[in-house]
């Protein structure tokens, strides 16, 4: 049985690619994220841990960071392991982003719901990002 689940969201913004990139990749400035209350960044900046309102934590390790093009990281918590890919491209004077998450969960019950959960998380992320850009 296939355990890896994938979800992709594509969004366009009026803001310049540099602005969108800087907001998405600055893990020290997270107050625009409605579902994150704290992020702890490692001293070398190559990894970080996000904490949700209910205290749930997820660890991230940055694997690729090509400015204004591609941002990737591995992620893991007690329920899943996965990989996140963010592709950034200019769209006229604005920006197009394509965000893809692939996760694998051990719990067969959670596996039934993880794709819809990922989609909801991605939609929230885009809504929050749009608000932070004033769009």
Distance between the termini: 42 Å
Radius of gyration: 15 Å
Protein structure class: alpha+beta
Uncertain residue ranges: none
Order of helices and strands: EHEEEEEEH
What is the mean predicted local confidence, pLDDT?
94
Indicate the proportion of strand residues: 35-45%
Question: Strand order of the main beta sheet, please?
Answer: 1-7-6-5-4-3-2
Shape: globular
How many strand elements?
Answer: 7
Helix content: 25-40%
Largest sheet: 7 strands, antiparallel
**Number of helices, counting only DSSP H or I runs of 4 residues or more:** 2
Pfam families: Polyketide_cyc2
Protein name: Polyketide cyclase
InterPro entries: Polyketide_cyclase/dehydratase, START-like_dom_sf
Organism: Lacrimispora amygdalina
Give an account of the 3D structure.
This protein is an alpha+beta fold and 135 residues long. Helix content is 25%, strand content 44%. It has a 7-stranded antiparallel beta sheet with strand order 1-7-6-5-4-3-2, with helices on one face. Strand 2 and strand 3 form a beta hairpin. The mean pLDDT is 94.
């Amino acid at each position: 049985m296939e355990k890896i689940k994938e979800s992709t969201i594509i969004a366009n913004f009026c803001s310049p690619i540099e602005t969108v990139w800087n907001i998405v990749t600055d893990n020290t400035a997270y107050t625009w994220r409605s579902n994150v209350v704290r992020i702890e960044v490692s001293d070398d900046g190559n990894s970080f841990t996000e904490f949700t309102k209910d205290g749930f934590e997820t660890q991230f390790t940055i694997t690729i960071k090509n400015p204004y093009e591609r941002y990737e990281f591995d992620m893991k918590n007690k329920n899943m392991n996965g990989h996140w890919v963010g592709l950034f491209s200019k769209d006229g004077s604005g920006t197009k982003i394509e965000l893809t998450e692939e996760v694998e969960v051990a719990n067969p019950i959670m596996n039934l719901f993880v794709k819809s959960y990922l989609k909801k998380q991605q939609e929230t992320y885009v809504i929050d990002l749009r608000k932070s850009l004033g769009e």
